Amino acid sequence: MCAACEAGWEQHALAMNASLADAGRAPSTAALNALMAMRLDASADGDDEQRQRGATSALDVFIRMRVSRVPPPDRDSAALATAAAGRRKETWSGLRNLLRRPWLRVPWNEATGSAAICALVEAGRLRAAAAAAAHVR
Fold this sequence. Notes:
By secondary structure, the chain is mostly helical. The protein has helices at residues 2-6, 10-22, 29-44, 48-68, 75-88, 92-100, 110-122, 126-136. It starts with a helix and ends with a helix.
């Protein structure tokens, strides 16, 4: 599943995920992280609507990981979810509030801080990135 995601073959990765589910097994955390990264990368070059869609679908993967706890999300999962959330919000306070929601609840650490700053800078939201950087210190 990781290799299919890295190659950009989303349909193949989803088919592998369905096969695992039918067999009563769950994909690894690394496989789901690769799926999140692929969805973020695929939407990075598109317009605002495509970026929003990619960020939302990446967040959906993280939320499913949190709810099912099989496999549990790790630091990389949290960083990818933060990057996805950073693409959706205009301000630092909006991003911080989203990350604190009970259904999302992303832990704040070095990886998520860096992901938040990078996502905000890539989106051209420099004031929000400066506020996030001040919070990281």
